[in-house]
Amino acid sequence: MANLAVHAVHKRYGAVRALSGVALAVPSGQLSAVLGPSGCGKTTLLRCVAGFERVDAGEIEVGGRLVASAGRQLPPERRRVAVVPQEGALFPHLSVGDNVAYGLGRAARRAGRVHEVLELVGLAGYADRMPHELSGGQQQRVAVARALAPRPPLVLLDEPFSALDAGLRADLRRDVRQALQADGATAVLVTHDQGEALSMADQVAVMRDGVIVQSGTPAAIYGRPTDAWVADFVGEAVLLPATVAAGVARTVLGELALTGATSLDQRDGAATVLIRPEQVAVLADARSGQVAATVTRRDFFGHDALLSLRLDEGEIEVAARVFDRSGHALAPGERVGVTVRGPVLAYREQPAGVG
Ligand SMILES: Nc1ncnc2c1ncn2[C@@H]1O[C@H](COP(=O)(O)OP(=O)(O)OP(=O)(O)O)[C@@H](O)[C@H]1O
């Protein structure tokens, strides 16, 4: 059973349509991410689920109970939905233990629930500290522990790591995911960070202009995006004009086999193909590969680097992800050969800026 079911929810602020028929189902015990760019309606959706906003139309059910529709608005405190905000969730004058115990009955306190959830988030032994004695990351861990403590039917995480620096975020994502899983919580993570959504969630719902445009596992969202916009938003995308015939796309990078994804319209004709930068192989010899190119930029990330390559043919820029451990890093100006590994997806549409 879905612990959260959102059916055709609409919400407008004056002339602004914030939500235009949102549908979302989060099965019990799963973490779903709502991923979308700034202004797409993520926060509005979260506020409608929590009960801070009324919906104009549609329905929201939490734990099988109707909590919101055009004619019904259960107040936030009666929905039992826990919210972990970006920061500032804790009462500054209460200890960590008292913060976590705040929403708990005496029986749960006595049963050691405070200790249990603090242990889940990696803060066993911190119960007597005050919030100002914790780092930002530790404070967010306490906020998660407090949200989990009363075993709510649903936990909403509103960009909970956005105020923390990148180094802290990776550990915290992993630990919070583990804590939610270990406690069997059903949760929704709202984020504009695709790395966060893909690494943490069981299911990802991609939102654009007040609508969920694709839902699926992280692998499906990344590997089979429903259109070129999703492809570009979820990860780096190389989008090239192509002509499709008999399962093969003819492009400036040669003839590329299509993945055969049945969810897409891949009929013969003009199309746009999606190539991920990790599929673009860079060869030291400019005469090898399909096309010769010049390196125009190199962004180094430590574990890998992203190269921008200007193809001789068509003067098109493509991105290539390279794992260069040889010590010879390709620098701007160098000449290389380019070829594509593995099959590609094709879209019938022509996105803006391509062609
Ligand atoms: N109280 C409000 N009054 C008027 N317009 C609003 C209000 N709240 C949100 N909006 C508008 O609704 C749209 C969706 O906003 P929302 O905050 O839900 O987006 P978001 O995806 O959460 O963005 P961000 O990631 O920047 O927080 C935006 O166009 C926003 O300007």
Automatic annotation (TrEMBL):
Organism of this sequence: Natronosporangium hydrolyticum
Keyword Transport: yes
Protein name, UniProt field: ABC-type quaternary amine transporter
Keywords from the UniProt entry: ATP-binding, Cell membrane, Ion transport, Iron, Iron transport, Membrane, Nucleotide-binding, Transport
Keyword Cell cycle in annotation: no
UniProt domain ABC transporter: residue ranges: 4-234
Gene Ontology cellular component terms for the protein in this record: ATP-binding cassette (ABC) transporter complex
Segments crossing the lipid bilayer: none
GO MF annotations, alphabetized: ABC-type ferric iron transporter activity; ABC-type quaternary ammonium compound transporting activity; ATP binding; ATP hydrolysis activity
UniProt cross-references to InterPro entries, sorted A to Z: AAA+_ATPase (IPR003593), ABC_SmlMolc_Importer (IPR050093), ABC_transporter-like_ATP-bd (IPR003439), ABC_transporter-like_CS (IPR017871), ABC_transpr_FbpC (IPR015853), Mo/tungstate-bd_C_term_dom (IPR008995), P-loop_NTPase (IPR027417), Transp-assoc_OB_typ2 (IPR013611)
EC class of the enzyme, as a word: translocase
